[in-house]
Design a protein that fits this description.
- The chain is 25% helix and 23% strand.
- It is of the alpha+beta class.
- The chain has a nine-stranded antiparallel beta sheet. It has a five-stranded antiparallel beta sheet with strand order 12-13-16-14-15.
- A hairpin with a 4-residue loop joins strand 12 and strand 13.
- It is globular, with a radius of gyration of 25 Å.
- The chain starts with a strand and ends in a 9-residue tail after the last strand.
- This is FAD-binding PCMH-type domain-containing protein.
């Protein structure tokens, strides 16, 4: 058997020890070894003198929250567009020759999406071992960690071309050192995400019908189709409209040319602990001051924070910084666990919860008082603030690159025993006042039970995050065809130590999710919701995307065999409903219709606020454990 495979056109070689097939059973492993020459021709990718992309032995990769596990028979780690194109071509040719289906998805070894669009296959179980065509994997994952370089710079035009795996935060740092900036609303607030992933999944910053995403500053894409062809498409071409927000359905973005700006400074103002009695009207006033705003709202506490970002000619102040994502050292996360763990474990809201609820609410209040966009300079009042309120306001001035995006690694909350359940939808701004009143109704009637349980609060991470977007005509974009989108997001913290127990008062999030999806025709963020959001039995997301048929036309042109179409995307395109199974609501793969869909000790019941929606609540017929 040959130990070395030569690529004569490149004059280079690579040994078999560098190539390993993913194997799950002894039989599969022996089969793979006996067909090593086949595997080599498929998996060895050598371009240039040192760059090597290879499939590695690993069964799965998982998201940071521990909720979504992806399976692949082969992981490929290219470092250039050409390497990726060669890989895709060889996998496609092998699949065609063997007659096997092929699925390829792009991700990172630890990814942030809470939906399984990132996965070529989602089962923890290894599929049945292939037969004579074992050298041709059916499930392939492309890992983008090697796609992290700045490729071309035109300083006169303020443009830069980067690989799609470069993190937004790394771009911001590079721009700060090289005399450039992004437009204010373009970066994601949490900026440790890849540029290609953000653009493909419709990730966003905040800006009401102004620049509000990395896709808004993209000029052109270099990408690879399902046959291994390499293309370069302008942002406003049909292909550009299919790639931005397209979840990788048409092709894999490998390089992005971005329009930057000259260096600029941004003033960030945080106004904390405002009463929420007129929050919708307050938003209108804030938007008259600046289009780049965000709000963090606690309906249970009847308070919110407002964050206003705007251009300034003031010089940057040493030490001023911004961003809502702060490191959470282990001792602090452990302290939160002292409250959260027993609270979450007390599913029936007995004496344990009644004792801890005041402390939980105090912790929640403390956390929202602490969370702010601007940091360092504390002023009693900011001149020109849109609301005349007697609250402390915090102002910071710095480079736009520093003020609009940040990170928390390695001390992010999700790296501890804490994790979050996250949902986000885009709705029309004109519907926001009614949506606010409906959300308040959920908290009043279902959480507080019309005043009978006023001491209940969501855990410290349970806030509604409000940001603003820009309407567009992209084919799969969450904001395609909208007039004036607002993003409404709700997170809920829980402990990983209780995998069989929902987050405390998880039914509040479930209620908001169904309300927003169904009554307000909310469009789920491609990367921030669980799979069930795209399969609600009565509320079709597919029907809410006016240009999606154009996306399918481009898919038919560039990927007729649906190589890049994930399992979840196939179900979404076919308008298939969620699959029901025991405790599927706990797994966030369905909305309950009967008690068996809930966690143990919970029952599927209509909401008090909106009886047309059912959620899992602690079973009322079960006896209280304490008190």
């Amino acid at each position: 058997m040959m130990d070395t495979l030569m690529f004569s056109m490149l004059g280079t070689s690579i040994r078999t020890s560098q190539i390993e097939h993913l194997t799950g059973t002894t039989g599969f492993k022996e089969m793979a070894r006996s067909r090593q020459s086949q595997a080599l021709s498929l998996l060895v990718l050598v371009f240039g003198s040192v760059a090597i992309a290879r499939a590695q032995t690993q069964k799965s990769y998982i998201n940071v929250y521990g909720q979504v596990k992806c399976y692949a028979e082969a992981l490929v780690k290219p470092e250039s567009t050409e390497q990726l194109a060669a890989a895709v071509k060889q996998f496609a040719d092998a699949a065609k020759q063997s007659g096997k289906p092929l699925k390829i998805r792009t991700s990172r070894s630890v990814f942030h999406s809470t939906a399984s669009f990132a996965c070529p296959y989602t089962s923890d179980l290894i599929p049945a071992a292939p037969d004579s065509s074992s050298a041709a994997p059916s499930y392939v994952a492309v890992m983008t960690e090697g796609f992290n370089k700045v490729l071309k710079v035109d300083k006169a035009a303020y443009t830069v071309t980067v690989q799609a795996g470069l993190k937004v935060l790394d771009l911001l740092r590079w721009a700060d050192k090289n005399g450039m900036a992004t437009e204010r609303g373009a970066p994601t607030n949490y900026a440790e995400l890849t540029i290609g992933g953000v653009i493909s999944a419709n990730g966003h910053g905040t800006g009401s019908n102004v620049t509000s995403s990395m896709g808004d500053i993209a000029l052109e894409f270099t990408w690879v189709d399902a046959s291994g062809g390499i293309h370069t498409s302008s942002r406003d071409s049909p292909e550009g409209h299919a790639l931005a927000g397209g979840v990788g359905l048409v092709g894999i973005i490998t390089e992005v040319k971005l329009q930057m700006t000259p260096p600029s400074n941004t003033q960030a103002v945080s106004i904390n602990l405002l009463p929420d009695s007129n929050i919708a009207a307050d938003v209108t006033k804030f938007l008259q001051t600046t289009k780049n705003i965000a709000l963090m709202w606690r309906p249970d506490l009847k308070k919110y924070n407002a964050f206003l970002m705007s251009k300034t000619e003031e010089p940057a102040k040493k030490g001023d910084h911004a961003g809502l994502v702060f490191p959470l050292p282990t001792p602090i996360s452990n302290a939160f666990q002292l409250v959260l763990l027993p609270l979450q474990a007390d599913i029936h809201d007995t004496a344990v919860s009644r004792a801890l609820n005041p402390l939980n609410c105090l912790t929640a209040l403390t956390s929202i008082a602490y969370l702010r966009w601007a940091s360092k300079s504390i002023l009693p009042q900011v001149p020109g603030a849109p609301l005349d309120m007697a609250v402390a306001q915090i102002k910071a001035v710095g480079s736009t690159n520093v003020m609009m995006g940040g990170g928390c690694e390695p001390f992010c909350m999700w790296n501890s025993e804490l994790t979050v359940d996250d949902i986000e939808f885009a709705i029309e701004l004109e519907d926001f006042p009614a949506w606010v009143e409906d959300v308040k109704k959920i908290f009043q009637k279902d959480l507080s039970e019309d005043g009978k349980a006023q001491d209940r609060c969501l855990p410290f991470g349970g806030y509604v995050f409000l940001r603003f977007g820009k309407a567009n005509n992209d084919y799969s974009s969450v904001t395609s065809g909208m007039k004036n989108p607002i993003y409404v997001e709700l997170t809920n913290a829980r402990s990983r130590k209780l995998p069989g127990v929902p987050a405390k008062y998880a039914f509040v999030q479930d209620a908001m999710e169904q309300l927003t999806l169904c009554k307000y025709k909310g469009r789920p963020h491609w990367g921030k919701n669980s799979d069930r959001a795209w399969g609600h039995p009565e509320c079709s997301v597919r029907d809410a995307l006016p240009n999606f048929d154009k996306q399918l036309e481009l898919q038919a042109k560039y990927d007729p065999n649906k190589v890049f179409e994930s399992i979840l995307m196939s179900r979404f395109i076919a308008k298939q409903r969620n699959l029901y199974s025991p405790q599927c609501d706990l797994k966030r793969s369905c909305y309950c219709t009967q008690d068996s869909h809930c966690a143990q000790g919970f029952a599927c019941v209509p909401l008090a606020s909106f009886p047309q929606f059912k959620v899992c609540k602690p079973a009322p017929m079960l006896p209280k454990l304490l008190g």
